[in-house]
Amino acid sequence: MSARVMSILESFSPTVEVYSIDEAFLDFSDLSPCTQDPLAYATQIKQTVKRYVGIPVCVGLGPTKTLAKLANFAAKKWQQTGGVLNLSDPIRREKLMKLVPVEEVWGIGRQTTKRLNQLGIQSVWDLANQPAKTIQAQFNVVVARTVMELNGIACLDLEEVAPDKQQIVCSRSFSRKLTTLDELSRALSEYCTRAGEKLRLQQSVTGCVSVFIRTNPFAVHEPQYQRSATVKLDAATQDTRTIIRVALSSLKAVYKPGFGYQKCGVQLSAIRLAASPAQCDLFDLATGVLPAENAVLMQTVDHINRRFPKAISIASSGFEKSWKPKAERISQRYTTDWRELVWVK
């Protein structure tokens, strides 16, 4: 469904940055239909997506990406906008900024908000009126760029090609509490397999593997425990077998019996391109503890997993799957499953 929405958006602009699964930036600077009547053009986008895909969307317009995000926020929050808002007008922009708290600005996190509030900066308008150099000295260049963007000075270009991920995290909450090391190992192995697949998809290798486990922090009357462990690899890898071996070794180090674990996960970091030059270890894999890299094998595994999606979990963590999160309230797959087609009466 996300791909369908993005393909429709691409028909309205030659330059599209897919920001997330449900959000994108479009460049309208060279489009005469948008220049003549921006609101009408944005409304047409909203109506087309709704008609072709069935998903309601909101459209925010502005001279910068930060202002467009702010306009989109307002279009969602206030129904009188009709789901479309243009912040190109400085008067309308000022009126909105005085109403919206500073924490709603794109890129302003919780800790930054606390520091801004301590300085008397409560609204978006307060932040926009701060000198960019002063903000950079007190915070960083990112917040300074945000101030400039709020004043209509574009500092962030559209990224038509998504950059490679610098970290890959795969984790899930369990449908029931896990108490044994064997059950946690099965779950963690599957998460490592997923993470390795994502790593190879962007042609990268990882130099650091982190593992974490935790109990349910909301079960205040039950014993609480959470730990994590990180291993820096001597040689970067994209081999799932190596990632699983290192992750399971870390899991054994942090696992403690007597607790009901609610979640575990793996994080791959120190990621770089597989083709980039790197320092090799003279004694790499000399002990035979870790398997040698086998790119052909991993390519074959990825091909099988794409063709038979359920094979990945069987290969990595066995047949028993009672710990997997349930999907009892999942939306119907009207467009991808014959058994869930819409019935018209």
UniProtKB/TrEMBL annotation:
Keyword DNA repair included in the entry's annotation: yes
One Pfam short name: IMS_C
Keyword tRNA-binding: no
Signal peptide (from-to): none
Keywords: DNA damage, DNA repair, SOS mutagenesis, SOS response
Sequence ranges assigned to domain UmuC in this UniProt record: 1-109
UniProt family annotation: Belongs to the DNA polymerase type-Y family.
UniProt protein name: Y-family DNA polymerase
Origin species: Methylomonas albis
